[in-house]
Design brief:
Layout lengths: L16 E2 L41 E5 L20 E2 L2 E4 L14 E3 L8 E8 L5 E12 L5 E7 L1 E4 L15 E4 L8 E8 L9 E7 L25 E7 L4 E6 L33 E7 L10 E13 L1
Antiparallel strand pairs: 1-14, 2-16, 3-9, 4-8, 5-7, 6-7, 7-16, 8-15, 9-10, 11-14, 11-16, 12-13, 12-15
Length: about 325
């Protein structure tokens, strides 16, 4: 399974649509970490007892509900066909080192490169009263300027032709992530929350990004085919406001015209990175969510981040 550290550099702008498409989208139970500590807060919304499922809606395509395996593979109903294989979830933590490289002052839970879905203390309901018992969660204490904390997944993989023949001790066949076509879909909808909102703003800024072959270094475009990836990772994205209540977020897969997205659409950040990127929905690697520290290490205490994601769907 191939993972990546997704890094951005500048503050967030809010461009999200809340709610929208679901017949029943409330989540009122508290999430809990693996140790059983209750960290979430109720939004006081509709409980599963009040939820009334609507008719099946085939305009929604489940990407993943986090109910299978420790970190995947993703479900993506009917979307992954042989010889491709479904991708997996991954997490990313910051790499700030106060001593110049010997050790890191940033902590992440779970640690970078080790990820498993988190059990919810009580099953909760999402689209059309679907019951959810697990979610994706990533916590970090960020110290370094522009350090990020995130979680995400990749759509599709294939056997890695450069890995050679796997030994009997290998966990599985080596794979490499490949671009995937999501052009048939109009939007992505999911549920999100945090336990660490900014005390003044009342929310945690979270950026949801869609790396593709123009903005991810694997596409060899943002870096011009070189080893310098400093202009990469400025992917088309939307900037959201996570609060202590579970909310449904819907992001339109629409960059608009002349760099101006419609309300709820996606855009690259005009203040840094590769600016020639085109939105290429036929060549998308995956989706990731991340929070970022935007002040220097000596400008305040660590930024505590806690990102929760549940039940991710495409909207056709």
């Amino acid at each position: 399974m191939r993972t990546q550290l997704v890094r951005s550099r500048f503050p967030f702008l809010a461009v999200a649509i809340l709610g929208g498409f679901a017949a029943c989208s409330s989540k009122s139970s508290n999430p809990t970490d693996g140790a059983g500590k209750d960290d979430g807060q109720s939004d006081g919304g509709m409980s599963s007892m009040d939820c009334k499922a609507g008719p099946a809606d085939d305009k929604y395509v489940l990407i993943d509900d986090m109910e299978m395996g420790t970190n995947g593979p993703i479900v993506l109903d009917g979307g992954i066909s042989a010889p491709l294989m479904s991708g997996y979830w991954y997490n990313s933590g910051a790499g700030y080192r106060a001593d110049g490289g010997a050790g890191s002052d940033d902590t992440s839970n779970p640690g970078q490169g080790s990820f498993a879905f988190t059990s919810l203390s009580t099953p909760i309901t999402t689209l059309n009263c679907k019951t959810s018992a697990h979610a994706a969660r990533q916590q970090c204490d960020l110290n370094g300027l522009y350090d990020t904390c995130g979680v995400g997944f990749e759509f599709a993989q294939k056997p890695d032709p450069d890995a050679g023949t796997p030994s009997s001790a290998d966990a599985g066949e080596p794979r490499v992530t490949v671009p995937f076509d999501i052009s048939r879909y109009k939007a992505v909808t999911f549920w999100g929350m945090t336990t660490t909102p900014d005390t003044e703003k009342g929310y945690l800024p979270v950026k949801v990004s869609f790396p593709d072959t123009d903005t991810d270094p694997r596409g060899q475009v943002c870096n011009g085919g070189s080893a310098d990836n400093s202009s990469c990772y400025n992917s088309y994205a939307a900037n959201l406001e996570f609060t202590t209540s579970w909310k449904q977020f819907t992001v339109l897969l629409d960059p608009g015209q002349n760099g101006v997205p419609p309300e709820g659409g996606i855009a690259i950040d005009s203040s840094w990175g590769f600016q020639g990127a085109m939105w290429i929905p036929t060549q998308v690697y995956g989706i990731n969510w991340q929070a970022q520290r935007n002040v220097a290490p000596d400008a305040g205490p660590p930024l505590m981040t806690d990102i929760w994601i549940d039940d991710v769907y495409f909207k056709e």
